[in-house]
Structures
1.
Amino acid sequence: MRILAYLAKRLVFVIPQLLGIVLVSFLLVKSIPGDPAVLMLGPTATPSAIAALREQLGLDQPLYMQFLIYVRNLLHGDLGTSWQTTRPVLEDLLQRFPATLELVTFSLLLAILVGVTLGVYAARNPRGWVARVSDLYGLSAGALPDFWFALVLIFVFYTVLGWAPAPLGRIDMIVIPPIPVTGILTIDALLAGDPEAFWSACSHLALPVLTLGLLNAGPILKITQSTMETMLESDFSRYEVLCGVPQNLVVRHALRNALPSIVTIISVLYGFLIGGAVLVEIVFSWGGAGQYAVQGVLNSDIYPVLGFVLFSAIFSLIVYIAVDLVYFLLDPRISN
Amino acid sequence: MTSKLGLLLRLAVIRPRFAIGYLIVITMTLLAIFAPVIAPYSPTEADSASFLQPPSAAHLFGTDNVGMDIFSRSIYAPRIDLTIAILGTLLSAVVGSSIGAVVGFYSSGRGIRVWLSFAIMRAADVLQAFPVFVFAIALVASLGQSIQTVVLAIAFVNAPIYLRLMRSQVLTIRSMRYVEASQVNGLSDMQTIMRHVIPNAMAPVLAQLSVNIGWGILLTAALSFVGAGVRAPTPEWGSMIAMGFQNVVTGQWWPSMFPGAMLAITVFGFSLVGASIEVVADPAKRRQLLSEARERTARTADAPVREG
């Protein structure tokens, strides 16, 4: 019951925030110069055709009316139409968002693996060489521009060594993609029982995941290390050490208690990466949602941008709520 | 302030990596200032006879696909990147932390000011919920692409960080005796904030500045990389990386690798400087480092180290 009450309270706060996000992004993209009607019809359009299309799109209405119309359409599941793809934005996003999600999720898993492992080792021995290395790693990983690091990896593993496939999309051109079920290629390939497609999707994931995973492990590493240090110095750990509990077990108990902070930083990173993967998507021609939004901004195609902002806001929201539920599981004190 | 500077210098001796940070930042600043003296070629003029030349004695970093000298362009680039990042960060720090100080000062009690503080914090929530890069690129697009709008975009996306930082500082400082004392002595709220609250809340803001300048450089380069920031012939690291993009895939690594490495080293330098300021600003960390230093000096000589 407590959880339900909590969720209800959370939603009450969230809806005005979502409205705020839609309003701000609407005003922002509406002020991007460029008339969609002119862009859609091309340079040869007659003024009367442009005027007719403007009227059809509602562009002749005052701004607040346009906003109300957009919100009304949103409530009916209509996110507008992209003039670049000439398709409904919702369809486009449902196709592209899983691509981003797949990339970001695998990257996050790699970041967790690197960050938590190094963090725990560094905390066990704060003056050892692992601690020094992870300190430097944390500082330098945040300093590398991801789009450049991606290029370095492409140069080494594609151009020189020839191990990785060309950075052009999510699957080899000659491989027939599996029937979309989830839109996540690796899962769809497994569902279809197609090892060739699965392998191709994995090999295309390798470099972008390496880029994002390695460069975003820094925050996880830092939080794991500092929380673990605190936990290992706290009374319950000292008591265990005094009682002669083996060190591995002491560390495991400390980690169990450090999990809430680690889960928090992971959730923040997850939300951040949905938008933060844009540049890597562009470098690898990933065809993801972020890339779609950036193309939208650069071509005065506003509905894809609005749709993406909305999608990523809702995604972050789901992640945060899921994390709060995880807290209930991790820390029995909260639910009392 | 001088004792703080002395402390920074002492830290650089204890932790060599901080010294490296200072060295990088100073070098990049000097490169930016003296680029016209150092650069062997013009940063914007192409010699179409020698395009895509690998690194050599004549062209240290090689030439790009239109024949511009990459070394010259790379050392002109901090002029643009550093200026944009520093201006953007300073702007966001000044605007964000002044609003944050006022909001923190008025965030309890009753009346219209409390509601206003609440509204400002919720607005900050909304701004921070945006995907940073898409937000920045949309800002630049709607304001019109120029160096000034990139500065504004950096200021805008970073301002909520300072707002929160300053607010949380002020929340603890507000209940201090000296704040009450200044109010009892008849200073207005604004005078109290300016003279007593802000100076005492500055330390974490300063630590954040250097880190944010690094992020600002990354964001500038990222915007230019997708063609939404600084435009091509102007020497800028991000747009140089973009120019060399296709060449890297076909094996000519130098047009992208050198500017990217310069960019990464610079951001790394600013994060190191930020980390050192963080140590100075955090009494616990400072004590730990200084005691470590004392141990070391005690071992080598008997000279006592005074607390700064």
2.
Amino acid sequence: MEEKIKVNALTFYYNTKAAICGITLPMYKNTVTALIGPSGCGKSTFIRCINRMNDIIPNTSVDGEILIDGVNIYEPRYDVTGLRRRVGMVFQKSNPFPKSIFENIAYGLKINGVRNRYDIEGIVENSLKSTALWDEVKDRLNESALGLSGGQQQRLCIARTIAVQPEIILMDEPASALDPISTMKIEELIQDLKHNYTIVIVTHNMQQAARVSDYTAFFYMGELIELNKTETIFTKPEKKMTENYITGKFG
Amino acid sequence: MSTHLENDLENVKLKMFEMADMAIDAIRMSVESLKKSDVATAEQVIQNDTYLDKMEIMIDDACIKLLVTRQPAAGDLRLVLAVLKINTDLERIGDLATNIAKETIRCDGRTPLKPLVDIPRMGGICIEMLKDALQAISTRDVARAQRVIETDTEIDYLNMQIYRELFSYMAENPHTITQAMGLIMVSKALERIGDHATNIAERAIYYIQGEDVRHQL
């Protein structure tokens, strides 16, 4: 299987304190990798390293490297804007722009230089269709995105992310603020999207990791304890600590 | 639009039906091989049993994966639990058919003790029971599953009738003991297949209604 992302000995410091220490793990193309672990174990810090979102936090530094398609994204002259175009991100709380549903998706396209109205309309429609939102919103594309339900807003944010055709999608607890039905829709969506994208998802919900991912990485106190196929992690994990965590003995 | 859970459930169900078809073939072929003293067919049954064994492991794995990664609930959960158990029943049916086929091979070259009538009849009833039990799952038909459970007494009755007949053969002529014991073993195997078909019907009711009807007689 092709390694889309390869993390080598990654350490991330807030001031002098290492929040993640020497993480090495591959993430494969067209798979979903779930990151699980107790609060403060470094999952979110780790995922935000993959599109260099942590760059904007003062007094932080990085050791090690993250290769995407074999190129280290922490090279000094690496094009960070281009990186964020290739690596989309969906956050815990849906954050649609205070604009119309249509504009939410069209905005990213416009700033990426897509000018043709027909192109934009086509991409908006396709993005909404691939997030199973089209039928729900097609008659009110010009209404404010803020009028959508929480689950719809989150799917809109995913549609917005995929409109600019990234290669990788990072999701930081994308369903933790949603009701069970909306959560199920997002989970179904994640599994459909993996055919076209490489997905990394942080989740607090172990059952969700089991449901949506192909690989699961268990983090604890900034270290990667175990990376394995999701089925293996939840049936016969190699590390005792992983078993203790997923069976609820700590964390 | 069907969900990933629904697709996975449908897949394990289809695999189970595929395995059931193989088990039914095994019963039919083993009884036929005995009736016609057809060693080649008997050997085929023994060979096919390895596929049934592989299917058992494959279905178990698929169910475990489904339990872990899809976390089914209610009717979906009952289906997976039923498939896990039916899987074992089907594998045992394959083993019992193999025992019958081995008896065909053991009897090779000997003059049959008697033309077989009741044993093929038992085999036919077992096959019908199995088909009905599976149909009950497919169409969620509790009444049909119930009828399978009731039919088992017919199998038990035939089994006892065969025993009595063969005992009288052995009492009259001790030279028939080896062959008669072989046929008693075959009859017992078919009686056990009837029990497994009954188990499958009970699991069908559990899947459909959530009601455990085992050990109620």
3.
Amino acid sequence: MRHIISVLVENEFGVLSRVAGLFSGRGFNIESLCVAETLDPTISTMTIVTSGNEAIIEQVLKQLNKLINVIKVVDFKELDYVSREMVLVKVNAEERTRAEILRMTEIFRGKIIDVSPKTYTLLITGDDEKLRAFLTLIKPLGIKELVRTGPIAIARGEKVIKLKDKPLEGGEEDG
Amino acid sequence: MKKTGAQIFVEALKIEGVENIFCYPGGATLNITDALTDHSEIHQIVVRHEQGAVHASDGYARASGKVGVSLVTSGPGATNTVTGIATAYMDSIPIVIFTCQVNTMLIGNDAFQEADIVGITRPCTKHSYLVKDVKDLARIIKEAFYIARSGRPGPVLVDIPKDVSSGICDFKYPEKVNIRSYQPTYNGHLGQIKKAIKQIAASKKPVLYTGGGIITSGASAELVKFAEQLSIPVVNTLMGLGGVPGGHKLFLGMLGMHGTYAANMAITSSDLIIAIGARFDDRATGKVDEFAPHAKIIHVDIDPTSISKNIKVDIPIVGDSRSVLKKMVEIVEAEKEEFKAYKASIGPWLNETEQWKKNFPLTYVRNGTLKPQYVIEKVFELTDGKAIIATEVGQNQMWTAQFFKFLKPRTLLTSGGLGTMGFGFPAAIGAQVAFPKSLVVDIAGDGSIQMNIQELGTAVQFNLPVKVVILNNGYLGMVRQWQELFYEKRYTWTCLECAPDFVKLADAYGAAGYRIESEDEVESVLREAFHNGRPTLIDVKVNPEESVYPMVPAGASLKEMLLV
């Protein structure tokens, strides 16, 4: 099962390596990882996509919480959320394909962010499915290079991930 | 007041109450080494190898309950600590390791004696710091000690570059630690505890399965009280030995691969396992799918990651063993009525466990040869069980766990999780530093003792009268035993054909040396050795092919025991 996990960490050197080392050392999967500073410059958010059965995900969450520099861990499976990722694609843009690429980009509400005599560079955002659909369509036209972020996620509605104490893990509460 | 980093280091240690450090000098330690010159109130035990320093600080911590401290130089000095750190990490021992580092300007340049020790030890430390600015040093030392001893304890490494120890700043030691991302849970959730108590009241065959958490949290008295209150049989893990007095009527012995018949059968027949401060290690559980097949499981542990890691738990309680046990004792006391039916029906279970204990005790064949088990029984007898016992790893460790009936917590120092050969002797040195007047005995094998034998120099230099009983069988016995049972007796690599004359070796170091070759010498030689006041090696020529039984083969279920 695929999980998106948001990890609030101290914005210090070495923290990324602790988190990455935890995944490799314990044999957990890491499909993608996005890291950036939050509004509070002392804190960074890591958005990690991982997969595994229930027991593995439980360990991932607990082990992350155990790291001294980790302030909070949120598994988005427990929340209603929206997520987006972004892809930059450099495609061949020849006389006969230019119009088609433009049209496709428009349909997917993407943008052309760089142009050269022979190429377009496109920016598309969306969820995994949308990006895959777009790439399938654009592929026959000749993709020269592709760069993709992993997803970032945020809870829907008014729910905010607050920076309080670490939540007490499953074991603590009833059930 | 302005101080150098090295002076801040010394002051901080004094405020933390550090009385002993285990150290080894090098270019990068010099600022600190020099600052310690006039501070004999911090006793500085200089070892012979950095691995020895960390094991000694670990043994010091295990025996005393205080944080053990070591200090070594950069590069190879730092990398030599790794086995010691990993050993302490696996057994949750509170130690702080200070490694020195090349100048901050040189870090990353492959400078002479540079190693990224924070990177190297990241997976085997509870936490680690590279101090980049002398202004951070006091706070980091404060945090390091706090993190090492709080929650589930563990090793914390602090890497101090040479220009940080020479740097100057105002010294003010913080009074409080404030780490927003680290707040260990000590008190168990009351609702969960009550649920557990209800479950116990409804059980007919409960077993307390307890481990190192009992020792760490000082919960022995509470555990014994709770067990007695409800007449619950207790099994210990290796790390938990001493948590219940070895001769207690409810104590069934150690469980697991070399556990007692009674302990393993009790687990297998139980309808409720109450695990406290234990972590369901594979050596304890045997085949996980067949561990306690009829039981519900209550698990009390301060570390949430230990819960439901290997075995699915029915009632998890995150908290400190002592505080949770205390609460449980209170609740049982207040709700005596609830336990009427339980008490009326517990008799048959106690009889059953008592029968196992009586019919299948730990035993060995006395046939006129010198048996290692006999030697350990004699060590127990001659010390009234009051010695602090360290072990190496392998057969010596298992026989000690079986035949020395540990009476009190913190009297067994053994590398349970990592299984580090060479641990016992330096650990015994550390314990002797903590308790100069106690008798400290390392029960060793001829293989293990050679892994850190250089520390004889340390023991002699600092007058630490540690006794090393070498159960010398000429083999790496535990591996040989596996070869005997599972590899058609092909003793590849395990026969130590060249060993030193341990008596002469002791003499060469200025220690006392004895040799025992038959049963009738055991008592008199041990008696003399235990009273000679000197560091001592006792070379005991035991029966070479003696094996440790009972045994549950790796991967088998606990009920599939080879008895002899």
